[in-house]
Amino acid sequence: MPSLDIVIVNWNAGSLLRQCLESVFTSDLGNVELQRMVVVDNASTDGSMDDLPFASPPFIPIRLPENLGFGSACNIGAAESTADYILFLNPDTVLGRDSLRGALMFMEAADNRKIAASSIRLNDTAGVTQRCCARFPTVGRMLAQSVGLDRLVPRLFPPHFMTEWDHQDTRPVPQIMGAFLLIRRSIFTRLGGFDEQFFVYYEDVDLCRRIALDGGICVHNAAVSATHVGCGSTDRIKARRQFYNARGRIQYAWKYFGWPGSLALALDGLLIAPLARSLKGVLNASLTAITDAVQGSLMLWADLPNILSRGNRPISSLEARSGSEARPISILALTRYPRQGASSRTRFLNYLPALKAEGIDVTVSPFFDETYLPALYGDRKVDSGAILKCYRRRLKVLHDAQNFDLIWVEKEILPWIPSIVEQFAMRGMPFILDFDDAWFLRYATHPSPLVRALLGKKFEHLIQQARGVIVGNSVLTDWARKAHAREIVQLPTPVDLDRDHPDRSAEHGGPIRIGWIGTPSTAEQYLRPLLPTLEELISEGIASFTVIGASHADFTRIGATTLPWREADEVEQLYNFDVGIMPLTDDPWTRGKCAFKLIQYMAVGLPVVASPVGMNNTVVQHGINGFLANSREEWREAILTLARTPALRSRMGSEGRNLVAREYCVSAVYPRLSAALRKAAGAPPLAAPSSQNKA
């Protein structure tokens, strides 16, 4: 005996819902077992769910507090199903006495076991068969439909619906209508249910296309019929209906045809289709038609940022239900630099071994190649042709990225490009952003008014479309919260302690060795103002000074040693310091810094001296693992104190090393990163270790 669950999604269907339910309960089920009839109400306001005269079970009403859309509501209704089949039935459909039994017996026939889903013949209230089976849309077919070419020259531009066929015979078809969609539950579950990015319209097209890609068949069963009123819930809101239809077309194009097709359909929905409807309204002297066309276009424009991101889509109810066990995750990391770039190395690449061990496979694609940073820091001209290649490479990576579960983005996707273009290039793929600096100031405070106008709010727009944002400190957390980020995870920039094994028990003779590590640009901005103090200490024989990663004539002039930065030499070079310094100016940019220099110094057991700016105030515990110094006098006194007291240096170095081991190393930070990536990718969290495995 085949078992059946029926799912009906209601939204202000009025008396049609009651008629639909009555037709179900008066149907001749034969040997079909009706297990559940679930009505999911999308926050109706017309009282259509009130006083329904049906007992439960099998009648199960589910009232949602807000309208989640048709696909989401269908998935919620089907989430607890254990039946052989699920029937998705519109509330404006009235079944005939034999509709259910005939539809189920057709699917149960031995010759039809390969059929994944079927529909039946739907008649309007006058008894005329609706020609509702359809071809899969193409971009050209959807554009032709907007201007009426499918009606004017159907031979050249075949319409979406198969109107040339009378639907009086049973046959396989590309797409069946969602008003009566009977599907094998095992297939529906395997496919993950309806794609919830489609609020209404095109969710049934997408499901049928995924059935076809899965090797399944959809069939129109003409031997069984029902009555379908059509537009039972949306006929009263034509402008919004036009908006959702255009929205679904853009999202469908993203999913199957890439950003060129979605861009074409966005322009169509914003301009071409509304203009065509308005002209038709003028010819028919219909002010309402003109108003609806304009309102629909304005709604599409207002919602375009949301449409441009599938990150908007919640995890489907069925995906959440079937994903109770951890599964492999595939992530594309769009870093800004290759390994030589500190932010990319420390916030992305150093995590890869641990992520791989946990079943998270990360493919890394930097925007800039390995020639960029040496040219930038070497004061050489950056080749414009090489930069253009970086843009082409990034666009190609995005074009081929549809099979990843998540895109993990360092700062931005395309530098100096507006967010709306980036979102088109992303083709609706889910993404999460990572910031270790106050990067939002880059464009918002730019001296050019044009840059501020085009890009000033770029990062706020990206954050609102992302599934989440990872930030390095509390300043960035506050900014992300004000930008209305959906999910904020604060993670410091960590070091890999496996590389660092300090043994500072033996003291050397001579001046205290002060060290600084960084880039030429940060040396120019933050280190040069401290040079007079350092020059005094060097000339007095109290200190020596070494700079890693930057060189300047002024450093040589005061007697400093300059060393090139190489990752392989970094730890050994830091071991040769007695104290690490991090001077900063106090401004909005520096308050967004993540104090990574201090973490590097502490990782090798160094005491530190730093400006009391931003996260430095969190990392440095004044008098315990280092000193905070503001004025020139405070800097001099802090260094003199450390120079005179080797035991204090040793004690502060140990305190700093312990702090890094607790809070700022890869092994301490990694579990929170893994959880954030899993959540953004729609995967369940890792199960906690069982008590038997806890040592």
Features:
16% strand, six-stranded parallel β-sheet, 42% helix, Rossmann fold, elongated, 4 domains, 29 helices, Spore Coat Polysaccharide Biosynthesis Protein SpsA, Chain A, alpha/beta, 21 strands, nine-stranded mixed β-sheet, single chain, 695 residues
Q: How far apart are the termini?
A: 51 Å
Mean pLDDT reading: 88
Q: Which residues sit in consecutive blocks of at least 5 with pLDDT less than 50? A: 310-315, 320-326, 689-695
Instruction: Work out the helicity level.
Output: 40-55%
Number of folding domains?
4
- Fraction in beta strands: 15-25%
Write up what this structure looks like.
With 695 residues, the chain is of the alpha/beta class. Helix content is 42%, strand content 16%. The chain has four domains: 3-132 and 167-234, Alpha-Beta Complex (Spore Coat Polysaccharide Biosynthesis Protein SpsA, Chain A); 237-325, no CATH class; 327-490, 3-Layer(aba) Sandwich (Rossmann fold); 497-664, Glycogen Phosphorylase B (Rossmann fold, 3-Layer(aba) Sandwich). Helix 1 (15-25) links the parallel strand 1 (3-10) and strand 2 (33-41).
